[in-house]
Structure formats: C-alpha cells, structure tokens
Amino acid sequence: MEKTVNHKAWFLVLPVLVLVAFSAVIPLMTVVNYSVQDTFGNNVFFWAGLEWFQQVLASPRIHDALMRQILFSAIILAIEVPLGIFVALNMPKRGFWASLCLVLMALPLLIPWNVVGTIWQIFGRVDIGLLGHTLAKLGISYNYTANAFDAWVTVIVMDVWHWTSLVALLAYAGLQSIPDAYYQAAKIDQASRWKVFRYIELPKMQGVLLIAILLRFMDSFMIYTEPFVVTGGGPGNATTFLSIDLVKMAIGQFDLGPAAAFSIMYFLVILLISWVFYTVMTNLDKREGI
Amino acid sequence: MARITLSNLAHSYLPHPKGPEDFALKQMDHVWEDGGAYALLGSSGCGKTTLLNIISGLLRPSQGRVLFGDRDVTDAPTAERNIAQVFQFPVVYDTMSVRDNLAFPLRNRRMDAAYIRARVEAIGRMIGMEAVLDRKARGLTADAKQKISLGRGMVREDVNAILFDEPLTVIDPHMKWELRTQLKTLHRELSHTMIYVTHDQTEALTFADKVVVMYDGRVVQMGTPQELFETPAHTFVGYFIGSPGMNLLDARIEGNVAHVEGCAVPLGAGYGPVGGRAQIGIRPEFARLTSAEGLPVRLRRVEDVGRHKIVRAEFFGREINIIAEEGAGIGPDMTRVAFRPDKINVYSDDWRVAPAGRLGEAA
Amino acid sequence: MALELIGVEKRVGAQTHIAPTTLTLEKGTMNVLLGPTLAGKTSLMRLMAGLDVPTEGRILWHGADVTGMRVQDRQVAMVYQQFINYPSISVYDNIASPLRLQRKSRAEIDRAVRETAEMMKLTPMLARKPLELSGGQQQRCALARALVKGAGLVLLDEPLANLDYKLREELRAEIPKIFEASGAIFVYATTEPEEALLLGGNTATLWEGRVTQFGPTPQVYRQPRDAITARVFSDPPMNFLPVTKAGPRLMFGEGQTAPATGSLAGIADGRYLAGFRANHVEIAPRPGAVLEFDCRLAVTEITGSETFVHLHHGTDRWVGLVHGVHQIEPDTRMPVWLDPAFVYVFGENGALVAPAPYAVAA
C-alpha cells in the first residue's frame, strides 16, 4: 500500500547520518588516504598510487594468512552449523526445561572475547589447566604453545564452544515458528524422522540459517581477540589469521601504507564473500519458487 | 473405511474435574456411519475442535472409548489410526513439487510406483491442478496450497476417515463455494467417511449429509439440513441456523394451544404437560404480517434486503422477526403477526418437546 | 455542509487506481461503497480520509479545499477490517485515547467514554484489555473509539468482514442506530450487496476503480444503470441470457417467448441481453412465471434457511436462490421458471435499455 509522502521525515534521519559519518565514513577515508601515500614521518606524505596494493597482493606472508583464514572459517562453519542445528532439534520445545536450555545456551555468548581467550588459555595449559593437565595424565601429548595442530584444535574448539549457541538459538527460533499442524500432518503421512527434517524443518529454518551462516562467516573471518590471547598467532605463524597479521603490520612494524591497503582489501573480500553467500542462498529460494 | 463409535465419551482439560462445567466435552454416545459426510458445527469454544482432536488421536479423552469399526483406538497414536487430516491453514511441503506433495503419503507407505503415478494424476485432476503438478509448491497462492492439502488428504484409498478442520478459512470468499461444492463431489466419488469441522453454517449444511450441531460441549442435534431448519431440537439450533434465527416466545402450553401474554396461538399438534420454561419457536419464514388475526405487535423497522424484507416487530418487549416477500406491501393496518401452526415447535428448558399427536389425535 | 470529490483521480505509475470521480456526500448521510475485492473501495476511502493525495482533482470539506491537508488535521475517524485497538491499555483508555489527544477535560472525557460505551454495549468490559474480548466486542471497541471523537467523517472499511456470521448479523443491525445518533457522514465499504441494502442510505457501486452509479440504495439496486452495476449489486451475480425483441414479443434464448409488457414494451426491435437475479428463479411453477428453461443442476448449497441452486443452461451458468432447504441430486435435469416482469434488458454495450417491469412498478 502507498504511504503518505512527507519530506520532513528526512530531518529525523539526520542525526544518524552525522553519527555514521563520524564513526564509519571519516575513519574509512583516513584509511583510504593512508593506502595511497607514503611517509617518512614528520607528517610529510608522498603520493604512492597503487604501490601498496601491489605489494600486499604479492606478499607470500599475506597469502599464507589468507589461506589459514579461509581454512579456519570453513572448518568453523562445517562444525558449528550442523552442530547448532543438531542441538536445536534436541532442545525441549516448551516448559521449564526449554527456558533452562535457553539460558544455558546464551551463557557463552555473554562472555567477552578476551575473557573467553583467557579461560581457554588457562584451561589448556599443561601445567595448571584442567584440560591440558587431564590430557597429559591420559598420556595424550598436547601442547598448544608448541604444536601447530594442537594450537588449531584449541582455537577451533574454543570458537565452537563460544559460538555454536548462536547458531543453535537461531535455528531454535526457526523451529519454534513451525506450526504443530505440520508435525501432525507428517505423522499422518507416516513421514520418517529424516523426511520431517528434510522437508519441514530444514526449509522452515532456511531463513534464519542464512543469517547464522553469514554472521558466523563474517565473525570467524575477522577473528582476532581469542587466538591472540591464547596463542598470540603461534606457534610460529600457525594461527596468525588475517587480522592478527594486520595488527602486526600496522602497530608492530608501523607500516601504515601497506596496512591500510591490506585493510581495504580485507574489507572488500568480506563484503564480496558475504554478497556471494547472500545471493546464492536467496537465489536458491527463488529458483525453488518457480 | 470404518464406522466411528464414540462410547460414553467425555473430556476435561483439568486433571480432576468436579462438576459438568469443568468438562469441555460433556458425556456423549454417537455412532457415525461408514462412508457418511458429517459436519461438526458450532461457534468457537463449543468443543468441536476438542472432539476432532480426540478422533484424530491428538488428545486422549478423560473418559469413554473411541472405536473405528470394531477396533478400540482410544489409546492408539495418530499414526496408527490410519486417518487423513486437512488443517485450517495449508500444510504443504514447500520444497517439493505439487506431484511429490500428493505422492508423499503413498511413497512413505512404499506403494507401487506405477500405482502412485496413476493415483496422483487422478487426484490432481479431481482438485483441478493437473496443469501445475510439476511446479514447486512454494510460491503458489493460499487457495492452491489448500487444494494440495485437500488432495494429500484424499490420496490414500484405505483411510478410516478424512478429517477437515475449518479447511476454507484462508480461501478467498468468491472461491469458497467452488471448493465446498468440489468437496461434496469428492465425497460422492470417494465415499470415505468424512468429518468436517466448521463454524460456518453454509459450509456445514452444503457439505454434510448429517450435521452435528455443538453447543457448550454438547451435541445438541444431529440431523439433516432439513431437520435443523424445520425441527430444531434445541433453541440454540433455532438461533444458529438460519438468518435471522428462530423467534422464541415464552408460553403456556395447553393441548394444541399456546398462551402467549394472554393471547392464544393455535399449534399444529397436541402436547402433553410441558414442564420447566416453556417456549414456542417459529422461524421468520413461517410468520406473516396481517391486519386481522394473530398476536398484536408494534412495527419497529422494515429492512429491504432485496430478495425479501425483514420486518422487525415488537411484542411485549420481545423482538419478532418476520420475512415478507420482496413485493409485499406493508400497510399501516398490518399490526398483527400470524404463525403457521404446523411450523411451530415447542420447547421446554431449551429442548424441543415432541408433540403427543397430530391435531385431532390429541387427547 | 458536505464532503465533495471533484474530478478526483488517483494514478500510481501507469496504473489508474481511481478513475476520475465526482461525488457529493451530504451531511448526515450513510454512504455505502459497494464492490468486489480490489474494486478501489479502500483507495477511494484513503483519498477521502486524506491518507493519500489525489493525482488530479479537488476535495472539498464544507466548501473549503482540503485536497492536500494531512489526515491529522482533518476531522476523520476510520475503522478497519482488522480489529485495531491498543492491546496494552484497557477498553476505557482505548475509547478515551482520541479525546486525550484533543486535550479535553477529565470530566468531559469520562462522560463521553461512558456514553459511547453504553451505546456500543461495552459498559461491563471497560476495565478489560481488548484481547480479552470476543471478536465482536473488539470491533465494538474500535467502533467506539472512532465514534467518540465526534468526527464529521466516519470511514468504515469492511468492519464486519472478519466476524462470524451471527456476530455480523448482530452488529450489522446496530450500525444504522449509531449512525443516526452521530449525525456524521458515514462511508461504509463492503463487498456484500445485502449489507448495502440493510444499511440503506446511498450506494456507490465500484468496478475496477470506477464509480459506476451513485444514488439511493434501493434505486441503484432495482434500477441499475448498466450490466456491471447490476452484477456488482447482486449476490450471487446476476444471470444473463440473450433475448430478441420482435414486435410485441420477446424471445428468450431458444424459443421461450413472452409478450413484451410494461417497461419492456417500448424498446426497439433487436438483439439484447436479458438479466435476472438469482432470487427470481423459481424451481416450481408459479403464476406469472411463464418462461420455462431446461437446465441441469450442477450442485446445491444450503445456507440454513435458503438454498442456492447452481444451474447449467446450455453454456450459460446460472444461480438460483430459493427459500427453504432443498437437497437435489447433482446432475439432475430440471426445469426452472422465470416471470418476465423480473427481467432487465441491457444493450450490447452493457447499458440498461429497460429496467425490469416490477422495479418500475415498485
């Protein structure tokens, strides 16, 4: 239905525009500014053109970090999405136990990133950590500070522990929106448990799963705090993901130009992949509608 | 296909019901014949959905038994009852094609593929969707989706009964008559036992051979549309069926005469003593305005609804509705209302009293 | 003192939602907008309310131009098909809310709320929340909120469409009473001809965004200007069959003839379209019903006290509406009868050539 036309409404948007300008557009422009200039200090800048971009694109160090990052996000999605759905399917539908489950599920989401990192950093330590010590007692060699594989496992398990709840809660919300009549109809049709999942639950969860996947992808692709606290990007560069690398470059080495160029490309890559995800999933939806 | 027997059935949602008011469904005994088309009709909260849920197995009754044929299914879960159900809102498997939707219940029962193909084509034709069998169900209109639900309900030939729970709620008004007449035709072709729950009298009366009118957790009448119109067994049926509903007047019954506010109204039959609150009921269709005979009334309004006129008259504070023909002249001297004696029903505490005998036979 | 629409038109992009319309709604009248879904009833109401601005034309309120004025600045109340109330406050506060916006005194508000509640039979429910009420009572609450404002223009957009038919019957009988008490201009949109007839007043029939006729309701019903108006104002839709006028006789379909009498006597010889309403179809012989048609019964529908008979007459589909309950087997061949006094004659362009003789006599 057509709405009333009233241009005064634009004034109401003004504060938001100002806020966004200060919080996003201006800092972004600063980064763009750095990315095309060079400096030897004293606030003297030289035009560098696309030199930094070329340098970053050719850097093997950044290639490695990118590959690690993609692998990490892929593993995270492959574990958290099915696990989240599985948890949601097995949660009670209503009553006291449903509320209790929801509270328990929400708990990890309420803990700050660096605290999560610290918890796991201590938890996994071989000398005093419950996990590390127990594993050592069981005769399993485990040391995330020395062994790259162990470091990866620790970071992934930590992320799964922290974020599977989000996927589960979103999937649960999707499941709750399915009217009882669907389940009753499926019973009458004698559909198997698998068919109920495949033809009722999964299609109805599709919308929220899209959001869950997008959120988890973006977040895992930008992960910084937890691995930084637990492994500091090591051992070696084994868990140096893109943002850890970026911080090293910008703060550690003060290579502002390459770091800025890197940031911009990082941002564009996330935007691109998110767009691809979104388009593929919504098109999937449309094609089925035909 | 099976006869459905409700034996000594009652249900309360409370764990320890005390009085009859705690029962959503009051004690009842009914037998619904194999292959019949039944409608459960009543306004919201009358217990019709509770009764449907007991038959489908969603709810276990607090007392009594449910029998399909000779088998006691009171404790059997839905899946074992071998029934089909069509819900208020369309339940379709969105990601499947229309064809796969219709075939779903058959495939799950591992029927022969050739049989499934033929059966799905036949049902597709019956519901008028043969042209869109290969389309995805998602994106179809609510009407079309509900037709798929209807089709899926009818695809199995061996079901004990097909239950319909207000299936036309989401259908556009001008499509309703098409679907409800289609359902009637389908019943004739398939001869399954069908139970149709609705609050819409036209849907119920059009669809069913026997209409089960429910009120306050009770079945107040089970009868043909004709019986519901001419001899309502309860004043609620008189009120609920027909528009406007039946006129009711407090009366004292003496043989074949009713005394209403001191006026004598001749009845078509003789009655024995009528206890409790005695009333006479007459449908507006069988009342007419006259200048000579009948009860004296005051005319309040005449509503011209085109095909006829509804005269709203007042008799000692009680409203009497009269239906007059489209062209009928209503003169200022027409201040009396006369009833057709053979169409008057007598009620005692809201329940219809059977006449003791036709006129002349009365003692 | 009236609401005047002068050449009002509404286009959105290339689509015309409302064709140029000129209407005058007088003070204190009940005006029904009758038409099927999507005929433009709601669009026209939104223009009247000021929720939409017309593309062309002017709207006058008591002689003053209000064309571009916002709805908030006009004296308008509106009730919708959905039961729209504030769910978190009591019925009393719901009814009082428009008065509080007008900054009326507390005593004045209390008096107005109680008076309106009494009229709408809501007095016992004043302390309750809207969602604790039945559908009929919720809509009464919405109606009360619209009435209490004392707005000069009250717009009701299919207010009874979402109610069960018994509740609809009850509330429908009350709307004329509250209308008489209010003295405002009422505009009532409905898809049901019977509702229009019950409300009386004036009726504007709408079809595809165009007002096809506007006049006193019984007149529009009995003397429709064209076939479209007749179709819109008949439920079930009017039945049609070809008719030929030759001298003093009319020949209906294939072979049924009757003398052309009354209003039908004066029309020129030629081919026309005859229209008759469902309730004039007789399934038993009756004096005057001299036309007999051989039909096949497709199906019957029973409403409780009346029966719809859906008929096939050759390739034509007809519907008859007869009193009482009749259960007839489908596919039965059956004759039906018609009195030529109930026949409207339309030209090939759909315009009325002669009204039915009975309608002229009435």
Task: Explain what you see.
The complex is a heterotrimer of chains A (290), B (363) and C (362). Chain A has 290 residues and is mostly helical. Chain A contains twelve helices and two strands, in the order αββααααααααααα. Chain A has one domain (59-289): MetI-like (MetI-like fold, Orthogonal Bundle), CATH 1.10.3720.10. The relative contact order of chain A is 0.12. The mean pLDDT of chain A is 82. Chain B has a six-stranded mixed β-sheet with strand order 6-7-8-3-9-10, with helices on both faces. Chain B has a four-stranded antiparallel β-sheet with strand order 2-1-4-5, covered by helices on one side. Chain B has a four-stranded antiparallel β-sheet with strand order 11-14-21-22. In chain B, a hairpin with a 2-residue loop joins β12 and β13. The two termini of chain B are 48 Å apart. In chain B, 45% of the residues are buried. The model of chain B is unreliable at 359-363 (pLDDT under 50). In chain C, the strands form four sheets. In chain C, strands 6-7-8-3-9-10 form a six-stranded mixed β-sheet, sandwiched between helices. In chain C, strands 13-12-11-14-19-20 form a six-stranded antiparallel β-sheet, with no helix packed on it. Chain C has a four-stranded antiparallel β-sheet with strand order 2-1-4-5, with helices on one face. Chain C starts with a strand and ends with a helix. Classes of the chains: A mainly alpha (290), B alpha+beta (363), C alpha+beta (362). Chains in contact: A-B, A-C, B-C.
List the helices and strands and how they pair.
The complex is a heterotrimer of chains A (290), B (363) and C (362).
Chain A: H1 9-35, E1 37-39, E2 45-47, H2 51-58, H3 60-90, H4 96-106, H5 113-123, H6 130-137, H7 148-176, H8 180-188, H9 193-221, H10 225-230, H11 242-252, H12 256-289
Antiparallel strand pairs in A: 1-2
Helix pairs in contact in A: 1-12, 2-12, 3-7, 3-9, 7-9, 9-12, 11-12
Chain B: E1 4-11, E2 25-32, E3 37-41, H1 48-56, E4 63-68, E5 71-72, E6 83-86, H2 98-108, H3 113-126, H4 142-154, E7 161-165, H5 173-190, E8 194-198, H6 201-207, E9 210-215, E10 218-223, H7 225-230, H8 235-240, E11 247-250, E12 252-260, E13 263-271, E14 278-282, E15 287-290, E16 295-296, E17 298-304, E18 308-315, E19 318-325, E20 336-339, E21 345-348, E22 351-353, E23 357-358
Parallel strand pairs in B: 3-8, 3-9, 6-7, 7-8
Antiparallel strand pairs in B: 1-2, 1-4, 4-5, 9-10, 11-14, 12-13, 13-23, 14-21, 15-20, 16-20, 17-18, 18-19, 21-22
Helix pairs in contact in B: 2-3, 2-4
Chain C: E1 2-12, E2 15-26, E3 30-34, H1 41-49, E4 56-61, E5 64-65, E6 76-79, H2 91-101, H3 106-119, H4 135-148, E7 153-157, H5 165-182, E8 185-190, H6 193-199, E9 202-207, E10 210-216, H7 217-222, H8 227-232, E11 239-246, E12 249-252, E13 256-259, E14 270-276, E15 291-302, E16 306-313, E17 316-323, E18 333-338, E19 344-346, E20 352-354, H9 357-361
Parallel strand pairs in C: 3-8, 3-9, 6-7, 7-8
Antiparallel strand pairs in C: 1-2, 1-4, 4-5, 9-10, 11-12, 11-14, 12-13, 14-19, 15-16, 15-18, 16-17, 19-20
Helix pairs in contact in C: 2-3, 2-4, 3-4
InterPro entries (chain A): MetI-like (IPR000515), MetI-like_sf (IPR035906), Sugar_ABC_transporter (IPR052730)
Transmembrane segments (chain A): 12-34, 70-89, 95-116, 151-175, 196-218, 259-280
GO cellular component, one term (chain A): plasma membrane
